[in-house]
Amino acid sequence: MQEQINELPQKASEKLQENKKFFTRLKRKAPKNLDYIMQELHEQEFNQTDCLECANCCKTTGPLFTNADIERISKHFRMKPQKFIESFLKVDEDNDYVLQQVPCSFLGSDNYCSIYDVRPKACREFPHTDRKKFQQISQLTLKNIAICPAAYNIVEAMKKRIPLR
Ligand code: SF4
Ligand code: SF4
Fold this sequence. Notes:
The protein is mainly α. The chain has two domains: 2-51 and 130-161, no CATH class; 64-125, no CATH class.
């Protein structure tokens, strides 16, 4: 898996133009059953990809934390939200709360998340490949392909499944 992860930025960069064209066409004529197709491709991929062998998202990017995430996680630690923010978070250029450092402080050496049950919404949803109206997050997906081997494979499978000209 590590070799696959190391090669991903280069592979994503080689596919960038092709993927941009595909997503431009997808926005123009998304199939009516796109949500269904994405559910299927997402499930197929995650049946064969074990995130515990990867954790590249937790190691290299980290999520943004909503106010609800901060409330829930600080409660879990029995900390005041402000103390949690000071200990683990910073504000980024988009004014969002993000991790002070990556790899994420909550990631164990065994790739388990120590706050799994209360983890941020963005962690639960990453890489967003099963979300509705997937064509609306093409810019984000183009970035995620370079980080997440599952997202890369899902987009490759999409291009085969949905031939667009
Ligand atoms: S979501 Fe993607 S990047 Fe994150 S652990 Fe799973 S396969 Fe790896
Ligand atoms: S909170 Fe958990 S799932 Fe989210 S980035 Fe950190 S270790 Fe990964």
